[in-house]
Structures are given as C-alpha cells and as structure tokens.
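Private note to self, pasted from the team thread so I don't lose it. Backbone tokens:
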C-alpha cells in the first residue's frame, strides 16, 4: 500500500542533538577519505496531513566542524572553505518530500557560504520507539546525498600534477537523525 504521508503523528518533531549527526566525506589526494561532522545542529520536521504539507528545516553551525584535526578544522572555518565568520550557518529548507514506507526522497535548498542551491537526499526511515529515559516517542532516519564544493563557491585546492588535485570537488553527505515527537500536553 502506498501512502502520501509520513508515518509519524502530525506536528513539529525536533531533532535530538545528542543523537543526530550531520557528517561529510571528501576524498583526499585521491587516496583516502577524510570524514567530518558538525556538532551544532538544529532541525525540525513539521509533519502535515500529507507529504505536500510536511516540511524539513535545518540549521548547522559551521564553526562546530570536527574532523579530528584542529588545524584542518581551523582551515575549514576560514575563507578558503566555509567562511564561518561571515556565514556562520549552513541552512536547509525542504521544497518537496516524495516516497512512502521506509524510503523517501527529500529535495530542498541548501545555503552554504552565502550560496543557495538545490540538493537531493535519499532518506531511509527506521521507525519509532519510546525512549525509556523520558518516555518520549522518537523516530529515526538516515539520509545520504552529495554536492559539489564549487557550486557553493568553495574552490580551494592544490594541483598535484596531471589531472589530480588534493581535495575532491564532490562531498558525500551522511546524516543520522533522531527526532522527538511533539508534546501531547
């Protein structure tokens, strides 16, 4: 059976920041992958009566980037990459949600480095459960996608000879989100 709504109770679901990860992967020297994440994430999902009236909004604090290397993190915050002093947040606003059951496509506008471009995420729904610590209902999702750094004006790189460069243009996105159901009080 196909539905045209999210399998969640209507209302505003908020991401639990301690159980939500916004991560990325970039190829380095064409040899390995560098992984990172943002620790400052604020996201809501407004569940409407159908997919057309449902919406996702997220704000990511760019100054919270963490790759396991403080020098690299400082460089990523600089004007070579995120320009976090001028553009402290990356934002996402959905424009469409498609799918049903456990698989969805989330389309929206991503603003990064002062540039807004459409992005598409493949979303998997893991279901709901009651969190024993506070008896709140939780929902779990993962999402993947990719973007071009150049599309957002992030062109820093170093030529390595031939057609090789130090950092790939393609950035893989990996999100794991745990949402908390709206209060029924």
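Design output:
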């Amino acid at each position: 059976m196909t539905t045209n709504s999210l399998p969640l109770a209507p209302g505003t679901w908020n991401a639990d920041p301690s159980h939500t990860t916004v991560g990325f992967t970039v190829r380095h020297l064409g040899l390995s992958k560098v992984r990172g994440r943002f620790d400052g994430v604020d996201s809501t999902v407004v569940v409407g009566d159908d997919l057309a009236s449902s919406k996702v909004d997220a704000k990511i604090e760019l100054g919270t980037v963490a790759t396991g290397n403080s020098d690299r993190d400082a460089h990523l915050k600089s004007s070579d990459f995120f320009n976090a002093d001028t553009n402290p947040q990356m934002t996402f606003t959905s424009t469409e949600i498609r799918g049903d059951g456990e698989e969805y496509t989330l389309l929206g506008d991503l603003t990064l480095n002062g540039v807004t471009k459409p992005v598409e995420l493949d979303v998997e729904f893991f279901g709901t459960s009651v969190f024993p610590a506070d008896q709140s209902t939780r929902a779990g999702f993962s999402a993947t996608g990719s973007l071009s750094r150049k599309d957002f004006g992030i062109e820093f790189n170093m030529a390595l000879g031939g057609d090789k460069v130090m950092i790939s243009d393609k950035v893989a996105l990996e999100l794991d989100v745990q949402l908390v159901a709206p209060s029924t009080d």
